Amino acid sequence: MKIKRGFIAVDLDGTLAQEGPWQGLAHIGPPVPIMLRRVRGWLREGNDVRLLSGRCHFPWARKYIRRLLNDHWLAKVTITKIKGPDMVEFWDDRT
Predict the structure, then answer these.
(1) Which residues contact 89 (CB under 8 A, 6 or more apart)?
(2) Cβ within 8 Å of residue 95, ≥6 positions away
(3) Would strands 87-91 and 49-52 be described as parallel, antiparallel, or unpaired?
(4) pTM here?
(5) DSSP of 17-67
(6) How far is it, in rounded angstroms, from Cα 33 to Cα 63?
(7) What is the largest CA-CA distance in the chain?
(8) Backbone angles phi, psi at 62, to 5 degrees
(9) Which of 18, 22, 38, 58 could bond to 29 as cystine, CB 3.0-4.6 Å?
């Protein structure tokens, strides 16, 4: 079901990617399979999906996030650190 307005935000560590011991900004765990399928489904439906991560406070860290997204056919996902009033869902392991 396509969401007509707003965007769906997905957290990175512990939600889209498995979280393990901290190994620095350049290390991102492997994808969480169920979330990977869910995000792909939202994109197929035409939804605006954005990856929301505190890592974005460090602009150079975005290249590692983009690599993960591109490697798993999620190139249409926007990377951001801003929630915003037009966010209609937020998927996070800590909420």
Answers:
(1) 3, 8, 9
(2) none
(3) unpaired
(4) 0.86
(5) B---S---TT--PPB-HHHHHHHHHHHHTT--EEEE-GGGGSGGGHHHHHH
(6) 22
(7) 38
(8) -60, -30
(9) 18
Closest C-alpha to 28, from 16, 38, 36? 16
What would the pLDDT profile of 28-86 be if each residue is shown by its tens digit?
999 999 999 999 999 999 999 999 998 888 888 889 999 999 999 999 999 998 888 99
Closest of 2, 9, 4, 12 to residue 72, by C-alpha:
12
CA 46 to chain CA centroid, Å, is 16
Alpha-carbon distance values, 67 to 27, 85, 93 (Å) = 11, 28, 22
Where b means 16+ CB within 10 Å and e means fewer, 29-39 reads: bebbeebbebb
- Report the alpha-carbon distance of residue 3 to residue 45 in Å, rounded: 8
